[in-house]
Protein: N-acetylgalactosamine-6-sulfatase
Organism: Mohoua ochrocephala
Amino acid sequence: MGWGDLGALGEPSKETPNLDQMAAEGMLFLDFYTANPLCSPSRAALLTGRLPVRNGFYTTNGHARNAYTPQDIVGGIPDSELLLPELLKKAGYINKIIGKWHLGHRPQFHPLRHGFDEWFGSPNCHFGPYDNRERPNIPVYRDWEMVGRYYEDFKIDLKTGEANLTQLYLQEALDFISKQQASQQPFFLYWAIDATHAPVYASKQFLGTSQRGLYGDAVREIDDSIGKILNHLQRLGISENTFVFFTSDNGAALISAPKQGGSNGPFLCGKQTTFEGGMREPAIAWWPGHIPAGRVSHQLGNVMDLFSTSLSLAGLQPPSDRQIDGIDLLPVILQGKLIDRPIFYYRGNELMAVRAGLYKAHYWTWSNSWEEHGKGIDFCPGQSVSGVTTHTQEEHTYLPLLFHLGRDPGEKFPLSFASEEYQRAVERLSGLVQQHKATLVPGQPQLNMCDQAVMNWSPPGCEKLGKCLKAPESDPKKCPWPH
Amino acid sequence: MGWGDLGALGEPSKETPNLDQMAAEGMLFLDFYTANPLCSPSRAALLTGRLPVRNGFYTTNGHARNAYTPQDIVGGIPDSELLLPELLKKAGYINKIIGKWHLGHRPQFHPLRHGFDEWFGSPNCHFGPYDNRERPNIPVYRDWEMVGRYYEDFKIDLKTGEANLTQLYLQEALDFISKQQASQQPFFLYWAIDATHAPVYASKQFLGTSQRGLYGDAVREIDDSIGKILNHLQRLGISENTFVFFTSDNGAALISAPKQGGSNGPFLCGKQTTFEGGMREPAIAWWPGHIPAGRVSHQLGNVMDLFSTSLSLAGLQPPSDRQIDGIDLLPVILQGKLIDRPIFYYRGNELMAVRAGLYKAHYWTWSNSWEEHGKGIDFCPGQSVSGVTTHTQEEHTYLPLLFHLGRDPGEKFPLSFASEEYQRAVERLSGLVQQHKATLVPGQPQLNMCDQAVMNWSPPGCEKLGKCLKAPESDPKKCPWPH
């Protein structure tokens, strides 16, 4: 989902009454970011509190290329990383992930090996259907074992866009919450549903209900589900004891617009890019009785902060043996403080841009290659800012492109290199970058190698279902990352 | 101001708490339009309830050119037009205009000749400063006579952006309301302030207070003023007896962005164009005790509806001897009804586009000429949609460009001509256009002739102030309208 997909953030159809109400009852973050303009690195960052370049969710196969976790990826979340649920366990939390894991699908990467107690969902995106010969359909797991595959046991009708997956994930969430409330055990629920990722789907009851087409139907179903989850917490009497945060893992995929892609509001470009449209996200903190209603924050936030903030809520300290990029947002959320901190915009292991305060400096610009663009792949449809949305990788290390995001949230008017304002701002930003780079220890890149043999041929549990497939010979290769 | 300039509509700095609260207490219109992408035709339409092509606020000097009311214009509002205040008078209303009139500055066009009882403000835009030789500075009137000139007696500091005009206009409004309340006489206040038109200004207390720069300072001052006006109505105990509507006369002038131009949110282009960014506007109806709080409407609305709605509120019928384009919105506002009606997008006397429901068909596309574009005049900075934001006037009469504004509010993805959806929608829209054109009787064009001799050399009252200037010989010419 994109920043502009919420009614509260100016989506002109205004079809998210529940999220809007969540914002009205809680705190709406207007300057909240993902750690990467792409799904799995962003999720890895959320759960580790660390930038993808540290936790390994990047590639070195090509300069400044985005990489993620398709089913032929060899890598995944390293054992050396400490995930939020692993830490929360120490405070007695029961942890559940519902939806897409996306941190590696091979046995050693299984979420239950990384701190989660329960899982219902899939290890990869719900792409398909596949033929189960060249490529297996993506499995859906319940805890340790698969319980079926997408398109086979968990239907997605690509023609009509119908699939009841969000309803399944909603029911799982409500049941888990009920169970935890009944057993009086603290819990961490990571509700990481697949929607609104393409191929976009919605349940029958939502199909055709949005002004925005199928994508809007999917947004409405998410909105409705979140309303039901919050209501459930209230009905069970645990809302004042449960911190809820809503956000997304990357900007709307404009490449799939208008049928399968959403809105980044007034921001430039979308998913895959380090412009605001690729990484600025809707974000709402909700905690009745603790967060005063109707608050808005301009704190620069990041999904990695959810790691540190959750630890803080559980009375835990973040690990001290490694660099943590997330910060504890509780002073922001509960006392309205503003913490001065930068936002780093990466593509692969290249720092493309940095923001501090209202200034953003681009050290590299790139949308996608001319070659890909020529094939109709467009991350910035209808948008073209000369020298900014470039189709070659342009380096600006020595004279960064500078934008003032207050006056120019759409990144359309670079500041004059000659201005005093430019020099003052770039000096500060470049100092932050130097500091950042000086102490940076990149993790082992996890997204370099691909191998058809590692795909989801025979996930645990496949025997019981008669769903084991024959894997081809191992033939590891460098993964191709076109973006 | 543009659609995207309100926090409630997704402006990322969220700096309009009073307008946002007005929306939360009233009805927010998401699909509300001006009658023209330019100031004075739009204002003429508001006050007459009729499209500029009917009331004369257009030019035939060039095909599909926008025209307005600079101080060398010969024309103005024809006597044959019936203005809202003229009609309200019959129901005992006292009518005041505060701010920019813009319906002609020659004596016969004076607002007090057209139904207003009081005026404080100027006949034209606050451009300047002028030298009073080639061109006089724009006068500011109190009622029948001028009381000074902009830049002379009413300072605007173009360097710092400081001017206290909005404060003057605010105080005028508060005083008028108090007076009317004291005398128990019904009133119509047309608070038509100059801000945020370029050159952008704000009072000292607002300068530098916005994240958005000077333009944001001006928006904040307007927002603050509206809060004060609404408060004043409440304090006087007449808020439940006073209908208030907030809107703008055209989309944000992106040509002046980022310093002097605002935001049209997710919409395409800005002022001067018939894309959504040029004509879709923020719009809020407020009437405590009558409009339930927090309502949102998708009614296709237009500034011309304020004519019909105001008459309806006063218990009056619209004139029956002429075509009125505005509709009475009270059933929408009070009962939540949706009235099926089209929106017509004109440039000059050319119907460029039409909207009905969620479909919009463009019969002509044009941003501006290559010549003007080459001079750096850009109505769509950073936006470029192939075949849509054209720099030549492109006719699509026989195969209109069709957009679905629900799925594609940014007008980036024209529907396929071959689709059934296209054919169904275009059939309906073209029917509406035929119907509209069949009965259209264009008014005498008022914006064709310009003459330096008619400028504000010696407005009434200049003698008392010693501010009469010598007019040059009359030399009427066709006005040049580049856009």
Remarks:
- Residues 214-235 of chain A form the longest helix (22 residues).
- Chain A has a mean pLDDT of 97.
- The domain at 7-341 of chain A is CATH 3.40.720.10 (Alkaline Phosphatase, subunit A).
- Chain A is about 25% helix and 15% strand.
